[in-house]
Amino acid sequence: MTEPSEAAHPIRVAIVDDHPVLREGTAALLAAQPGLEMAGVAGTIEEATALVESTEVDVLLLDIRLGTDSGLRWLTPAGESTRPRPAVIVLTSYDYPQYAEAALRLGASGFVLKTAPIAELLDAIRRAAAGGLAFAVRPSAAASHVRLSERELDVVRLVVDGRSNDEIAARLGIGAKTVESHLRRLFERLDIASRTELATRALREGWLEVPPSS
Amino acid sequence: MTEPSPPPTTDRTRAWIAAGLAALALTMSLLVLLFGRYEPGLRLAVSGDGLVVAEVLPFSPADRDGVRAGMRVININDRQLIRIPQYSYTDPPPDQPDASPTATLIGPSQPTAVPTSAEDLLQLASARIDRLDLATPDELANWSQESNCCWGVFYPGYSALSQASLALLPGLAILLLGIWFLDTGRGGESLRPIAVPAAAAAAMPLLVQPLRATAMPDLAILAGLLTVAAMIPLAHALAERIETARDRQLATIAIALLSVIGAISAILLVTSYGESGDMALRWASIGAIPLVPGIAAALPLNLGGLRAAGRSSRNLLRSTELALAGATPLFAILTNDTPYLWPIAGWFAAIAIAGRYTVRPLARLATRAQLQRDLVVAATEAERARVAADIHDDALQELTLLVRRLETAGDAEGAEMGRTIADRLRAICGDLRLPILDDLGVGPALDWLVLRIERLAGGEVRLERVDGTRPPADVELAIFRVAQEALANAVKHGRPPIVVRYRATDSGASLSIDDAGPGIAADAGATAEKGGHFGLLNMQQRAEQIGAILDIRRWPAGGTHVALEWRRR
Questions:
Q1: Per-residue pLDDT for chain B (569 aa), expressed as one digit of tens each?
Q2: Measured distance CA(B118)–CA(B465) in Å, rounded
Q3: Is this complex's ipTM strictly greater than 0.85?
Q4: Which among A155, A195, B496, B505 is least surrounded, fewest beta carbons within 10 Å?
Q5: β-pairing verdict for A11-16 and A59-62
Q6: Counting Cβ atoms within 10 Å, is residue B448 exposed (0-12), middle (13-18) or buried (19+)?
Q7: A114 closest CB neighbour out of B400, B435, B445
Q8: Chain A interface disruption, residue of B392, B439, B446, B464, most A CBs within 10 A
């Protein structure tokens, strides 16, 4: 699902990583991509905070292990910020589901491994910029008992991508009203209050991991 | 320190209660010394030309001496009120050694009143009684040469009351110096929070001596009940320091029973007469109130092999302190005669000497050994964390770069190889020092551990966790290491299902691991140590380092239970 960004202006990306060579390498790689623009790099949470305060950042790539500090601390900020907080993609060496779970719980938009193919990272950045979620590692291992129809699965998948009702309707070739009623029924049945909660639960409980044939 | 420490508020409440009881006893004793007096317990009245016992107070010294209402006074102090016939005996002459001696009557032939003025009689009736000679009207009426005179009673108690004031000095000294000594930690760390109850319990038997010395039954009973009451805060504090919940409960029941027995004894001591051995036993029953929980807190009642093996020698000191605190009141109770120094002073001297020459040096040695052990663990953990950080921060990051390069260069196979190596390095890092533990806490770390163990266990491994808060980092690390060791044991020696429970609250954290295997052998601790398998010992050590209690046991129906309990202080 590597859609080109529909936004007119390029996506501004910042990187928080304590390893300078890797940080610069990733920055150079991303700067060369069409539709992306580097907003800056930071080695610590404090530097990251200063960076986000001083310039516009759409997507922040955040490493968890920052020396002895934990990058997850950035996701639970203490003070008030004057600027809107960027979407955060946790970019880490560790593929622990517990990290993915924490990232999701703390409001991150994505979770990508550092060794993942670059295409996967680009896809995650574009999804996050569009308001969607992109988790390469399934958050937590909680068993799911939720059963969804094919159509519901399609709708949920697009909600996770951050699409609006109109976009979903256009994509699936159905009416916006039908999308709305699908969502309302899902909310009711699963006791869900918002689109964000729907997307979060879909990822956490692995709804979208069912083989397409079943 | 591995003792369960009760919430400080409980300790404070107990201290206030104990201090209040001691203050009450002290005030009453001072009032008695200032305004009270020794009370033999009988009232005299003028009857005709003499004095008669009008009333005897039940359970008073007079009652005990057999003085009964209606008896007539023959002598009071040095004043004679009735002249008794007296005989002087002359030895038989030497030539008749078998003849009976000749009796010559001196004075009247029948008991006769000594003329005394009415004013004198009235005055004597209300005088302080030091000595009385009494006879029943019957005896007086049927007097014969064989009659014995008389019923003599002697009341030395006036001096007893002033002597009892001497007990206040050692009593006050034990109370004030005891609180200072224990509260400043000079009596050992474990006695600090219970300084006031311990000092009050040891001082109380001495503080109530003046009340007992009045010989008034109600004050004597009150003295006994105050002594019993002063034992309860100490006993309760000691019982809370017993390691396992079941033994704590048993000790609480024992305290309740002993307190009832002690209260009954305090009443019986006054209201019934017994041999002196009986009396000592009754007082001893009061001393048993703190003694029983003191000893129970010192020696865990279940002396399993695991406990014995893993038991740190630092606990030796604590055990000794608690046992001594429990035993001291008994010696104070036995100190009930002038000059009110023995045996309590001897007891303190013995403690001081034994502490100086045996217990403390031993404990110091043990503490040093434990310190060295703790250093080894700390150094190992630091080294592991450093190696993990090195691999992660350098090798793994550079490998990541390499994978990117290979990928950019179109070498998909090389990139995949790089990813496999990265996975391996990550796994090594995780084994050395799980980053989840530092970033997310012990709860998520247990999630990871349980999933990993489940693959090895070949059956269900379940984690139930409730953790809203995170304990300090060292506590989290210790809990995680204990869980790792216990789960490894469960997989090796036990059978699934294995259940791990973790709970963290504002007041502490608890971890338990249960398996369905045959259960650990009772002497596993000892044999493991001999065989060089230090897993159990390691767990014990980790628990001790954070001041947690580790309990390893076999359920009666089989299955090993490992539980760790840590309380925030």
A1: 344 455 566 888 999 999 999 999 999 999 998 888 888 888 899 988 889 999 988 888 888 888 888 899 988 888 888 888 877 777 777 787 777 777 778 778 788 888 888 888 888 888 888 888 888 888 888 877 777 767 777 776 777 788 888 899 999 999 999 999 999 888 878 888 899 999 999 999 999 989 888 888 888 899 999 999 999 999 999 888 887 778 888 889 999 999 998 898 888 878 776 555 566 677 778 888 888 888 888 765 344 433 433 345 556 677 788 888 888 998 888 888 778 888 889 989 988 888 888 777 877 787 787 788 888 888 998 999 899 888 888 888 889 989 988 988 889 899 989 988 998 898 888 889 888 998 889 999 998 898 888 877 778 888 999 988 899 999 999 999 999 999 988 888 888 889 999 999 998 999 999 988 787 776 665 566 666 567 788 888 888 888 888 888 888 788 889 999 998 87
A2: 92
A3: no
A4: B505
A5: parallel
A6: buried
A7: B400
A8: B439
In Å, how far is B458's CA from the nearest CA of chain A?
18
Q: Among B397, B415, B447, whose Cβ lies nearest the Cβ of A22?
A: B397
Residue of B nearest to A115 (CA): B400
Residues of B in contact with A95 (CB under 8 A): 423, 426
CATH superfamily for B456-569 is: Histidine kinase-like ATPase, C-terminal domain (3.30.565.10)
Give residue for tokens 């279940």.
Answer: B302
Query: Nearest residue on chain B to A73, judged by CA atoms?
Result: B439
Q: Which two tokens stand for residue A112?
A: 């990508």
Distances (CA, A) of B393 to A88, B385, B416, B429: 22, 12, 21, 11
Which of B21, B30, B61 has the alpha carbon at shortest distance from B220?
Answer: B61
CB–CB of B401 and A21 under 8 A? yes
Which residues of B make CB contacts under 8 Å with A?
A: 392-393, 396-401, 403-404, 407-408, 415, 418-419, 422-423, 426, 430, 435-436, 438-440, 444-445, 447-448, 451
